[in-house]
Recover the amino acids of this structure.
């Protein structure tokens, strides 16, 4: 069951008032609003993360990534938080694009866990060689005492070229 945030007094009050006035059915009607808020927060956070990667902004990435973060690429390569931060600091990839496309972002929230799926367009240069591809990814966020953290990511192999 999705948790109604206790840090929002108006929601807590309205939930209590609804229980007194209308019974349990009215209380359950407040739950989707809390879930939608969490989904919006996570959607914005994931968009912020993609933008930070594109800028090689290791400071912002570090704030969003969980300490035990893991990314698994479609080819089986595994990266941890420190790997991604070192890559950003070294600017080993010069990004032209690192953006979610086709209005594909979808966030699903289950309590203290949220999963973002989206289609990503990446374009840049690494080791002097250009690359460009589109792929699908799933990013898993967990609610912590300090807010939502990006804990696990999985990216597909490159999608077939569009004609």
């Amino acid at each position: 069951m999705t948790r109604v945030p206790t840090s929002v007094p108006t929601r807590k009050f309205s939930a209590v008032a609804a229980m007194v006035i209308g019974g349990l059915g009215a209380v359950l009607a407040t739950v989707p609003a809390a879930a939608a808020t969490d989904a919006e927060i996570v959607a914005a956070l994931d968009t912020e993360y993609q933008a930070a990667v594109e800028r090689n902004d290791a400071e912002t990435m570090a704030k969003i990534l969980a300490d035990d973060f893991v990314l698994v690429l479609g080819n089986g390569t595994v990266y941890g938080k420190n790997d991604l931060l070192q890559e950003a600091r070294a600017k080993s990839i010069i990004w032209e694009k690192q953006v979610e496309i086709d209005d594909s972002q979808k966030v699903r929230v289950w309590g203290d866990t949220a999963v973002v799926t989206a289609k990503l367009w990446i374009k840049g240069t690494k080791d002097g060689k250009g690359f460009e591809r589109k792929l699908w990814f799933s990013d898993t966020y967990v609610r912590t005492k300090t807010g939502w953290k990006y804990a696990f990511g999985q990216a597909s192999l490159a999608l077939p070229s569009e004609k």
In short: The longest strand covers residues 93-110. The first helix runs from residue 9 to 22. Confidence is low (pLDDT under 50) at residues 1-31. Residues 36 and 109 are 8 Å apart (CA to CA).
